[in-house]
Write a structure and sequence with these properties.
Helix content is 57%, strand content 9%. The protein has 14 helices and 7 strands. The strands form 2 sheets. The protein has a 5-stranded parallel beta sheet with strand order 4-3-5-6-7, with helices on both faces. A two-stranded antiparallel sheet has the order 1-2. α5 packs antiparallel against α6. The relative contact order is 0.09.
C-alpha cells in the first residue's frame, strides 16, 4: 500500500479525534474502520479519510448506536466494507437469542461455539452478549420475558464466561480487583470486563455481585491491587455508600463502571470508566 500524502501516525490521530490509541487499534481490528498505509520504516500511517470515519463513529455512538452499528454506518457512508460480515454476526446472535429464550441449552452452546469460531472474542462480548443482556433486561422489565428465561440465559452465559475466565489470576501482571457494590446484583458485565483485561496482562481477583464493603476493605488490604474496579448501575448506589467509598478510594486507585457521571464518581475519589466494555478495558493502565 502506498503512503498517503499528509498521513499521520496513531498518536496524532488520537490527539485530533480524542480517541485513545488503544481504542483506535481495537476499532481497526474489530471493524476494519481504519485503513492505514505503511511508512518506509514500517509504521502505520493514517489518512484524512481514517480521521473522518473515526469522527463519524464517535458521533454515531454519541447518538446511541452500538459500536458495531456505528462502525458499519461509518464504513458504508465512506464506501468501505466492514471487516465483520454483519449478516453472519446478526444471524448467529439471533440463533443464540432464540435458543436462550426457548430454554434450548444445546442450541445455545452450539450458537456460542459458532460465534467464538467466527469472530473475535471482543466482538462476541461487546457486540453480541452485552446487547443481548440489555435487551433481555428491558424485556423482563416490560413483562415480555419471564424470570425463568432471564435466569436460564444468565446462568448459561455465566458458565460460558467463567470457562473463558479460567486462569485469569495467573501470571505476573498487575493485580486488578473486581467487585460489585452492595446492592448491585449484575456482575456478568464485570466478568466480561475481567476477561478482556486479563488478555491485556492484568491478573484478576473477582469478588462478584453484592460485595459487602468490609469484605472489599479486607481484600484491598490483603491483595494490595494496582487498581480496583467497582460496578454501580445507578448514581444512587454511589450516594448510599459515599462515605465508605471515600475511605476505600484512599486505600487503592479505584475506577467505577456502570455510572458514567464523571462528577458523581469523582466525588467519591474514583474515575469513571467508559460505557463501552472494550473501551473501558483499554482505558485502564497499571
Amino acid at each position: 500500500m502506498t503512503v498517503v500524502d499528509g498521513a499521520i501516525r496513531i498518536g496524532e490521530l488520537a490527539r485530533r479525534t480524542g480517541v485513545s490509541p488503544e481504542l483506535l487499534r481495537a476499532w481497526e481490528q474489530r471493524y476494519g474502520l481504519l485503513l492505514p498505509s505503511r511508512s518506509p520504516g514500517g509504521f502505520r500511517l493514517y489518512s484524512v479519510a481514517d480521521e473522518d470515519r473515526i469522527r463519524a463513529m464517535t458521533r454515531l455512538i454519541g447518538d446511541g448506536l452500538s459500536a458495531a452499528q456505528a462502525a458499519r454506518q461509518a464504513l458504508t457512508a465512506d464506501g468501505g466494507q466492514p471487516a465483520i460480515e454483519a449478516p453472519l454476526v446478526d444471524q448467529l446472535a439471533d440463533q443464540l437469542r432464540t435458543a436462550l429464550d426457548s430454554f434450548d441449552g444445546t442450541g445455545a452452546h452450539a450458537s456460542f461455539d459458532r460465534l467464538l469460531a467466527s469472530v473475535s472474542l471482543e466482538v462476541v462480548l461487546a457486540d453480541v452478549l452485552v446487547p443481548y443482556l440489555r435487551d433481555l433486561g428491558d424485556r423482563w422489565v416490560a413483562g415480555r420475558a419471564t424470570v425463568a428465561q432471564e435466569h436460564f440465559a444468565s446462568n448459561l452465559i455465566r458458565g460460558r464466561l467463567l470457562a473463558l475466565a479460567r486462569d485469569w489470576d495467573a501470571g505476573d501482571g498487575p493485580s486488578l480487583l473486581l467487585a460489585c457494590l452492595p446492592g448491585e446484583a449484575h456482575d456478568l458485565g464485570l466478568i466480561m470486563f475481567g476477561i478482556l483485561t486479563s488478555r491485556r496482562g492484568w491478573r484478576i481477583t473477582f469478588l462478584g455481585a453484592d460485595t459487602p464493603l468490609d469484605t472489599l476493605h479486607a481484600s484491598i488490604r490483603n491483595i494490595q491491587p494496582a487498581l480496583t474496579v467497582l460496578v454501580a448501575s445507578t448514581p444512587s448506589l454511589l450516594a448510599a455508600h459515599a462515605h465508605d467509598l471515600r475511605r476505600l478510594t484512599s486505600l487503592t486507585r479505584t475506577a467505577i463502571a456502570g455510572v458514567t457521571d464523571a462528577q458523581a464518581v469523582s466525588e467519591v475519589g474514583a474515575t469513571a470508566l467508559p460505557g463501552d466494555i472494550v473501551q473501558a478495558a483499554t482505558a485502564i493502565v497499571p
